[in-house]
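Re: that chain you flagged

S.,

Sorry for the slow reply, it's been a week of failed gels. I finally had a moment to sit down with the sequence you sent. For the record, here it is as I used it:
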Amino acid sequence: MTEIRAVTMPKWGLAMTEGKVAAWAVQEGEAVGPGTELVDIETSKITNALEADTDGVLRRVCAAEGDTLPVGALLGVIAPASMPDADIQAFIDGFVVEVDEDAGAEDAAAEPETVTVDGRTIRYLRMGQDGPAVLLIHGFGGDLNNWMFNQPALAERHATYAIDLPGHGGSSKEVGDGSVEAMAAAVGGLMAALGLERAHLVGHSLGGAVALALALGQPDRVASLTLVCSAGLGEEIAADYVDGFIAASRRKDIKPVAQMLFADPSLVSRDMLEDILRYKRLDGVDAALRTIAGRVFADGRQAWSARARLDELAVPVQAVWGAQDRIVPPAHGDGLPERIGVRVIDGTGHMVHMEAAQEVNRLIEAIVAG
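Prediction finished late last night. Pasting the structure tokens below so you have them in one place:
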């Protein structure tokens, strides 16, 4: 390393304009490398760790714990140990939060769009222009914003599409029979409408089952599978979560349900709860969720499984779990075919792709790269 590198406030999600420095994990003078967790950043949605992307020494901490700063603001400086202090100070004194007009235009263009599939509206968010297509499929009750810590990072090298399944987010609330196969058909229809002949699928929870169904039903469309805390690999499911999510209509009711998603319940913010409740108040959502749950999670069990057909998959497959997942047991990753890599990440729960975003992103990058 021969240069000074700025550590700046990241932009996680389209709506993020500022973040709060929650806690530094590294002290001035400590050596760091790619993947070293530097500082926890608190957003209105969730707290996440910002990692170093280079080797060096954290020469200066420029933002104190508790500071709220705009995206792009200087948080710290990484440089070689041999770099004179005067050069570090000159860099800090001359640092300006740059506004990249081209990047700004790209961000402005990165707004959710819709396509019509079999008479239904499906919402999606595209980010990135080049590279293999990566399709991100959320879980039960989620939406495309669940990938806020993953999609921007993946979009640096790939054309990424985060979608809202039928019944969710900004998509039509008409879900047909609510089956996994019906949702997989909608995803396949979206790919056709967007001209995506083939894509790497990343599915979370229910979205994992949908990805599996698409890979089994339309194998030519799938380049690889990353299954994140995936449904469709066993019978057990946290029925109290499913039932509680459907029934909750007030913040005090939804809060303990949402906390089941994370290893650290304190990650559930007021804004996160309000987002869930706003979604649940939309016309047609209650009926859609009940239809899906009645078909996919009938009698508190998973009614659809791909486990007996995994040998039919001719593409690379990996499964990722949070060790403290209370919704879909990590044990569902046991006994899978040897060629399916299984990674269980300590200290994380069902939302492992948010709680350990950088690690999950690296796993996705690796399978996409082949």
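What I noticed first: Confidence is low (pLDDT under 50) at residues 100-109.

Talk soon,
D.
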